[in-house]
Each structure stands twice: as structure tokens, then as C-alpha cells.
Amino acid sequence: MSKRSSIVAIVGLGSVQLVSALAGEAVDFEGDVWPILEEHCVSCHGPEDEFNELRFDSREAILKGGKSGEVLVPGEPEESSMYVRPSLPADDFDIMPAEGEPLSKEQVEILRRWIAAGADFGGWTG
Question: Whole domain around residue 87: which residue ranges?
Fold first, then answer.
């Protein structure tokens, strides 16, 4: 196989994997969503700090919302600030997380897909 056909094969395989990752399998809360929340959200919205009375460290707390109301509307990502705020442009004052690096496009898409599919927490309670 020539170098060019190897590159085409790799690019083709990557495209297949990306398409199946974006359109295929269900998003698992514990395996896909929780690691994002734990890494990017819980430091400001958890047991150590309840910024705006919002916590992301338990199912009950996420469903309760915070000072500004609910953050999760199962089945409605565009109505869920836990999706909308991380998807804002990096220079937007309201983007979350407020500190550190913004979520990657892939992480934002995981949140969108999880919420759109009904925001199933599985057996996770936090």
C-alpha cells in the first residue's frame, strides 16, 4: 500500500469512527457525562463551593437546579443551561466553566446528546 492510500484509509477510518461516535451509541452518564462534570464543574458547583446554590455532584442536586432555576430539562438541550452555557463562544461572559479551559466541542456534544436522549442517569445518584 502506498503512503497516499494509507493516509486515505486512516482518514476514512477516522471519519467512520467520528460519525458513529456522534450519531451512534447512547451516551452513558457515568462513563461519558460524569467525567466532564467532575473535571470542569464540581470544583465550583459541589460540596466545597455551591456557587449560585448549584451543585453538580449528585443526581438530586442537578435536577434541583440552583439560584437561577433548573439547569437540566430532559429532552431539551436548548432549554438546559448545563448545555447552553458551555456551548457559548469562549469570549462570552456567561460561558461555563467560568475559569479554566472551555469544554471541547466533543464534550459539549456529549452533553447535548445525553440531554436530548432524556438525561438518563442510570443508577448514578452521586
Answer: 28-116
